[in-house]
Each structure stands twice: as structure tokens, then as C-alpha cells.
């Protein structure tokens, strides 16, 4: 069995069933020189909270793997934010580099409204505004990823007027 097949088997045994059950999917794009490149699609809340677990499980199962890269649909990389910047700027980088490429598949976008005493206020726009799964995306996808990348964040507040959403990806009627 080759390295790519071992990675697929490790994913299928570990996190892939959870990702699929939560409305997402992962597929191996390429395995080259110990670097595994995966494509994440579907619900960001299905995959983003599992990224560190996924990394640990694949590396344990396939020792040749030295790095895992995750791409959003369309080839946008999901990379870590660079440290050293002001809290608001670091949050904005994570939103722009990791979260927005993932939720753009649902016509959504998250913008930073402000940061005060460690509390981050965001607004969900596009397909996320009024989406019946916005709270799930927020609490199971966005918040865990921000906490992992920006540990000094005290909390996350959604200030979106969801009732004003005109084109939600999942309307409340689809529940």
C-alpha cells in the first residue's frame, strides 16, 4: 500500500465519518515528499474543529507524513495566521485566510466588527446572514478555529441581524 492509500485509510478510520456526518467532506489531493494536501468542502463546521485531531491521527498512522495542508474548494489554502500583530489584525487574518475561503462555497463571509477587552465581535454576511445553520458554523467551526489560532481571545459574539438576511444558504424553512 502506498503513502496516499495509507493516508486515505487513516482518514476513513478516524475523522472522515465524523466530517461526513456533520455535512462536510475531505479528499486527498496529493501526497508528495511527506506533505499531504487535502481539500475540504461542505460545511466548514464539519471539518475546521477537527483539523488538529486530523493532523495528529494521520501523522501517527503514517509516519512518512511530515505536514498536512488543507485547501478550501477552488485551491485556497487554509494557513495559520502570523503572530505578533494586534489581536484584531490577527483575527482578521484568520477570517480572511481560513474561514472566509471555506464558507465562500455557501456564498457567505464573516467580517470583524471590533475587538474590545479580548471580546471579538463579528458579522456574518451573504449566505450566512439568516442561515438556519449559522449558529452551528459559528460555534462548531469559527469559534474553535479562532480560539486555536488566537488563544488570547476572551470570547466571540455574533452581532449579525439574521432576520434581515435576504438570501440565506439554508433558509429556516429548510430545517
Provide the fold topology.
Blueprint: H1 3-13, H2 16-21, E1 24-32, E2 35-42, H3 44-47, H4 51-61, E3 67-71, E4 77-78, H5 87-103, E5 108-116, E6 119-126, H6 134-149, E7 155-158
Parallel strand pairs: 2-3, 6-7
Antiparallel strand pairs: 1-2, 3-4, 5-6
Helix pairs in contact: 1-4, 5-6
Report on this model:
The chain is α/β, with parallel strands linked by helices. It folds into 2 domains: 3-77, Fe-S cluster assembly (FSCA) (GMP Synthetase, Chain A, domain 3); 81-174, GMP Synthetase, Chain A, domain 3 (2-Layer Sandwich). Helices cover 37% and strands 26% of the residues. The protein contains 6 helices and 7 strands; from the N terminus they run ααββααββαββαβ. The chain has a 4-stranded mixed sheet. Strands 5-6-7 form a 3-stranded mixed sheet. Helix 1 (3-13) crosses helix 4 (51-61) and helix 5 crosses helix 6 (134-149). The longest helix has 17 residues, at 87-103. It is globular. The termini are far apart. Mean pLDDT is 83; it is low at 79-84.
Mean pLDDT: 83
Strand order, main sheet: write it out.
Answer: 1-2-3-4
Q: Poorly predicted ranges (pLDDT <50, ≥5 residues)?
A: 79-84
Radius of gyration: 17 Å
Q: How many distinct domains? A: 2
What's the CATH architecture of the largest domain?
Answer: 2-Layer Sandwich
Keywords:
175 residues; alpha/beta; GMP Synthetase, Chain A, domain 3; 2 domains; four-stranded mixed beta sheet; three-stranded mixed beta sheet
Amino acid at each position: 500500500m502506498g503513502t496516499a492509500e495509507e493516508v486515505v485509510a487513516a482518514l476513513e478510520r478516524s475523522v472522515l465519518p465524523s466530517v461526513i456526518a456533520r455535512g462536510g467532506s475531505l479528499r486527498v489531493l496529493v501526497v508528495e515528499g511527506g506533505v499531504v494536501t487535502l481539500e475540504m468542502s461542505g460545511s466548514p463546521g464539519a471539518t475546521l474543529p477537527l483539523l488538529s485531531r486530523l493532523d495528529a491521527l494521520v501523522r501517527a498512522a503514517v509516519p512518512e507524513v511530515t505536514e498536512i495542508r488543507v485547501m478550501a474548494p477552488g485551491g485556497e489554502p487554509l494557513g495559520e495566521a502570523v503572530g505578533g500583530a494586534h489581536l484584531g489584525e490577527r483575527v482578521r487574518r484568520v477570517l480572511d485566510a481560513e474561514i472566509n475561503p471555506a464558507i465562500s462555497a455557501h456564498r457567505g463571509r464573516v467580517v470583524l466588527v471590533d475587538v474590545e477587552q479580548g471580546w471579538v465581535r463579528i458579522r456574518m454576511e451573504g449566505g450566512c446572514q439568516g442561515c438556519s445553520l449559522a449558529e452551528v458554523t459559528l460555534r462548531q467551526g469559527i469559534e474553535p478555529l479562532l480560539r486555536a489560532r488566537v488563544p488570547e481571545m476572551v470570547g466571540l459574539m455574533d452581532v449579525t441581524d439574521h432576520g434581515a438576511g435576504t438570501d440565506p444558504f439554508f433558509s429556516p424553512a429548510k430545517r
